[in-house]
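task queued by scheduler; priority normal; single chain, no ligands, no partner chains; default sampling; output format set to structure tokens
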Amino acid sequence: MDGGAMLAAAVLCWSCGVVGALHRTDLFPFGPLSGDLILPEGDDETSRALTLPKPFYFYDSPFSKLYVATNGIISAQDLPMEKQYVDDGLPTDFPVVAPFLADIDTSGGRGQIYYRVTETPSVLNRVAQEVHRGFPDAKFTPTHAMVATWENVAAYEDQSQKTGLSNKVNTFQAVIGYDENDSYVLFLYPEGGLNFFGTRHKESYNVKIELPARVGFSRGEVTFLLFSRTDGPFYSVTTDENSVKSLYQVGNTGIPGVWLFHTGSNYFFHNIVPASIGGLLDTFSPDTTTPEYEYLDNIFAGETKVDTYTVTEESDHQVLYNRDVPEPRYSSEPAERQYVSPKSSEGRAEQLQEQQPQLEVVDVHPPERTEPPLSPGGHVVSVDEDVDLNTGVFQYTTENKETCAKFQHQCSQNAFCSDYATGFCCHCRPGFYGNGRQCLPDGAPQRVSGKVSGTVAVGLTPVKLNNIDLHAYIVVGDGRAYTAISEVPEPVGWALMPVSQIGELFGWLFALELPNSQAGFKVTGAEFTRHADVLFYPGNQRLSIVQTGRGLDEHNHLTVDTVINGNVPLLPPGAEVTMEPFKELYQYYPSVITSTSVREYTVVSAERGSESHSFYLKQNITFRHCHHDNLASVPETLLITMERVFVMFVKEERTLRYAITNKISPDGADSSEDELTNPCYSGNHDCDTTAQCIPQEGLTFRCQCATGYRGDGQNCYDIDECAEGVSSCGENSQCSNLPGSHRCQCQRGFEFGYDRRTCVDIDECSSSPCHINARCVNELGSFQCLCQPGFLGDGFYCSEQTGRPKSQCEQHRDSLQSGGPDGRPSVGAYIPQCDSDGLYRPQQCHSSTGHCWCVDSRGQERPGTRTSPGAPRADCSRTDEPERPKTRCEHHRDSVQTTSPDGLPLLGAYVPQCDEHGQYQSQQCHGSTGYCWCVDSRGQERPGTRTSPGAPRADCSRTAEPERQKTQCEHHRDSVQTTSPDGLPLVGAYVPQCDGEGQYTPLQCHGSTGYCWCVDSRGQEKPGTRTPSRTPPVDCDKPDRPKTQCEHHRDSVQITGTDGLSLLGAYVPQCDEHGQYQPQQCHRATGYCWCVDSRGQEIPGTRTPPGSASKDCSTEDEPERPKTQCEHHRDSVQTTSPDGLPLVGAYVPQCDEHGQYQSQQCHSSTGHCWCVDSRGQERPGTRTSPGAPRVDCSRTDESEHPKTLCEHHRDSVQTTSPDGLPLLGAYVPQCDEHGQYQSQQCHSSTGHCWCVDSRGQERPGTRTSPGAPRADCSRTDQPERPKTSCERHKERAEATISGGYPIAGAYVPQCDADGHYIPLQCYDSTGHCWCVDRNGQERSGTRTPPGTPPKDCDKSDRPKTQCEHHRDSVQTTSPDGQPLVGAYIPQCDEHGHYQSQQCHGSTGHCWCVDSIGQERAGTRTPPGGLRVDCNNPDSGASSSRPESVCERWRASLVEHYGGKPDPQQYLPQCEPDGEFSPVQCYGETTYCWCVDQDGREVPGTRSHDVVKPACLPTVTPPTARPLPRPDVTPLTNTGVTLLYAQGQKIGALPLNGTRLDASRSKTLLTLHGSIVVGIAHDCKENQVYWTDLSARTINRASMVSGAEPEIVINSNLVSPEGLAVDVKRRLMFWVDSSPDVIESANLDGSERRVLFNTDLVNPRAIIVVSSTGTLYWTDWNREAPKIESSSVDGQNRRVVVSDGIGLPNALTYDFSSGQICWADAGTKRLECVSPNGSGRKVIHPSLNYPFSMVYYRNHFYYTDWRRDGVIAVSKDSSKFTDEYLPEQRSHLYGITIATTYCLPGSH
């Protein structure tokens, strides 16, 4: 069918909240029937000019013509040839609207392109509705629309390649709506409409480079400086292939696949504005009519101006209200949207007072003058006066108490609601924090987004900020807050640098909390208003900042809008602003927080030098406060400390940045002493950014993954609640995983109900989506549009018939007669009957079911006229009288669905039968099952009247007598559910049969299985009467004989479930006709057979396995003598389970040949022995432990002495259960021959031994582990030493033991004689063993399962590989040591690397993986299937092109990580053509950012969200511009400076003594496109040298102003890393880690030579000691890491260190001691050793992840990859002394020291 025949009005109901994919039928109508023109077929076609009736504005310019092109674009100018734009990105040289810019080809009938300009009202109305949804404040009524549709179009393919054409085609649509002032554009991408996402470059010279489609807008070139032209503004929707793929899955209008943009205006228009509804679902607005919270700011951001009051408290505690309505200096709103007058404000207040209970101000001294009342929730504390509130004077009075039952929906889904005396409050659940209305997961990083608007005057020039983007990222674990504002006009960008208060809000909300304090978000939640006034000195400029928290979006990100108005001082371009750390007091009151401060800052510029400025800041933050929980209302003072403040304006990106490190603490707390500060409070811990740092005793801490994450705290991974089935999503909803959480969204056709948790059906018909000549039928999750009689169409468009058009009846009939797959009617379908005029016949009958009924003129059934097959039909000729309301029976009958939507009957449904008056017929029958029964007037079944099919029916006409109560049988029968809720029968249910009196019939049969059996009067099955299907049933009237033992046994076995179905696998004894055990018994499920005696006991030695010859069980038993007591006891012990398997561990009495108890009894399982008397009773004092000499039981009993304490203790321990089974693990005291405690006691189950005193009390410090030498218990007690940590641990574990029983399976640590943990610990219950450190903490990777040799705990560890980390992070046992079945455990080889083939032990699936454990696509095989050979190289992997920069960098890092990167480590992600993927991420984490084509990070795009970031076009640097030359910044005269390499720059960090002077740090060199790794300094020439991994070069630059970088070596380098300069000999040395060589050359690159190219695997660091002429280098070969040395000429090569090292990354020389020092990323140690290998010592035992290191004045300075900073370690104290974290967080590589003079020993 042509698309133009359908008006896809489904989109009109999207405003109701429908969330689902866009379907093709939802596109705007298109095709010839809609009046569309068709673009000619071809590869590069452009339409003729479409002259517009009125011009439309694109950006700020009017255009009167439009052109449609093949390649997915619409232009306002005639297009050039495609080669000038189709393979380029945005911007273009000409105006472009690009729904899908790519190389499209419609030749050969491969798709059509339709377009038209229209004034059709239905199209214009739909455009208007979409615009008003996306831009609620827009005053827009379109007068014209242009619709362009690309239907089933294909990508261009080179025919010369002789490959078949692809069958991938795309369908998409663009709609431009405009009026005389504005234009808006819709992009629509239906589900399944995008099947290719880019096209290949036509001039790629046989290299298959695919370019992602470009989606967005470009203004084209604009005139610049009268005679010049430059690129105009542009806007990109997509950035890479992934973002193109998601076009139909997401949108910015609330509907996936629908994108809306404001594209032009005749008023000032800067750039494209996207709609911002907030994701796939509209955000929920809390009910603002309930006043349980004080809310002082909710009108600030609205459209009504609220009077601002100054609240002061005088000496007599009288509260005064002074109206103060300042006139705004600048307005950020259009005239029609500015605030209304105070008079209107009062009207608004009255309106609010009608909705909310009145806020009363109660005071004993009322004010003398009359003041207008405050509107509830609208009073605002001004920043013009200090606030000193007496919180006792504010009270709420409400007539009706709000309770959780009514208002719980106002709480966060991660909160609970509590009722109090005056109302309710919300509180966050454990694991979350906030104010209860909004709760965030503990420990997770937070993101903020919003818009910045207003007018800022710089000097005398006002500049308008028009909703520019603000993004913030906060690392909660250490209080770092990063804020970026994009597209800031240049003069404002420089001037706003001192205004760090914009970003300080986010630092305060999520500050690092010190003890007894809380960050702002816990107080305010996500809804607040912050007002700040800034007064600058000396110019007295005043700036107002208003920041409004709008709540949390669908990703749990905080949304904050910022409005800035006022004046700021002018700062010269290029100026630098420095702000010193400062502290500020915040005063807390109910509903408001205030602060004032004076700040100083320094401005340094080339024009003015260094200048000092200051400003005065006053601010208040108003928020909702819940007072019902009666918390202390005394004002609280907290101190916010901004430790580092960094501000910068990046001119090229037009981005303003603030970075602030924040801590919050009580006023007066002193945390200045680093050595006394826990790392959790100082922020220098190594917990993951998605983890909490939990302080422990002293300086220790623990890392705990944030809520919604799992891991060890140092590496945390998001929990996918959706995949793991632990989400809170209900019916008709779908779950989307988020970092640390998840989101529920309703399916298409549903929306959230009042509770915001349940999805309810949307009544689409309420929005009138159908044509005016159609009717709407709402359905569950959807709706239908049906044309009225006399009209044809699909319901969305209905046209009047001409001639005699088909009637509705004929259309109905004909649609069903051809509804089958072969054009024939479907069998069983109801076909309407029409008369000669095409009208419905008054009486309709269903030919398949036989039902008949009367219909009206519309074919609708007339209630009460339906008759069953064979019943008299209703008279349909009677004139319709006014219809009476439907009766209950008719409602019931009509609600039953008997036909499917296509007219097919639904068999098996029960349809009630109603009489002519609509009442239930007294007798009802089920047409499918044949059961009949009588009902009362309500349709309820009358008990005892149900009859089976074919049985005589009950007489339902009898006057209802008082009903007898239901019998047990009838209750049983009626409780069985035989039909589903929709009336369909449930097959297989057993329904009891009752007689006329309601009693069980003696013979019961299962209708589905055919089994029959006899029952007693209670319905209980009589044993031995069950017969299978098709066998004669038992005579149930025959009298019963008593059951035999065999029959009792047989009948006690449960062989059927509660539903009557058989339970497979149970062993059922076989009895003969007399009820005796058959001599031979067999287990039908297992096939085992055995002989039994007359009691059914198995005769030993007779059991045979399946398939083998059975034993002859026919031998007759000899006459038996009566059993003795011992034999009865022995035979009563159950030694086999019900299925015949033996039960191990049971105690079986031993009887002699006469059946008497043997005098000595022994337990075969435990080994205990004891004497018994003739009755089998144990003789006290005769029990012996296993292996101990047994008591002589033949001695005559002497007169017994009274039991001693030990004997009482021993005999009270229960060692056997009542049925004779031993109780394993019980501790039995050992007593000597006198009944006293033996001095040494041992636990026979655990093997532990200890000494006891005379009372049996354990002597501390004497307990020994199994196998360890036992303590000498004969020694006199000495004064006890204090218990060790191990002994206390063990004591706690044993503290749960009571009554002599240990907790089964409890792990008890093993301690040595000195009380220390023994290195190897084992779990007695599970058999697992592992190594521990001195604190008893398990050493990773040492755990071994039962039966495998334990690890050698004295052997030094190598660092865990990624596979081992992955494997060990999988939880395989529960806390009590029980195995957890079903977890996938990675398989690692002996080196810790992933085995190439992985298999899931539970599911049996197998697959191949790469070196980082990623599954190779297409290699997964099901259980039992033929596995893929994982050793074959991937086909098609070869390529003739050279390695790209991205690929070289990736390969280098893979080698650095040892070929096995951890899941959280960064590897560059490259496209198939070798270019950088636009989105880069840290390993498997969601910590991602955008890069440009050279791999440079796009600032402000870092994201920690499951949805990878899309590059904001406003901050993306141009990708088709020449790169700026490297910028050299001369160093200040500091004497000593650390130079460090950080990706594309070299940073300079001055030293102040030995302290890191972070305040003077700066970028020395900016090297775009580089990857700087090794770095060295020539102190004689003051030049810096570096290796560039990206360009494969070695470079240098003078450190003087204006110097240009110089390439020294640019050939035959692959992965140059470490670099060293010999100042004395004027030589340089470097390592190349790819060919594994060490080379040297003169400093100018001449006389290059290879020193070593053998016996190197992974060389990394290299240093040269000029004074001795010695080289040292590291090789982190994982198999044999080492540190070597040689002379500078390559002679005397030798190994310096090879033992006890793992990944020796960093290397330096200590000139003071003459030692070589290295930092190891594997062992985490910093060590030094003399060049001859002697004097080795550990400087620091626990570094994080060192990369490079330098030594200066008894301090080591190293770059750390976990902290992404420079760390200082004192050689003398072995402690961390300082830390520097650059504001831009990424890995730091090489580090060196630069001085203005050469240090001793360096030359």
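post-processing summary
- The first strand starts at residue 37 and ends at 38.
- The chain is about 10% helix and 30% strand.
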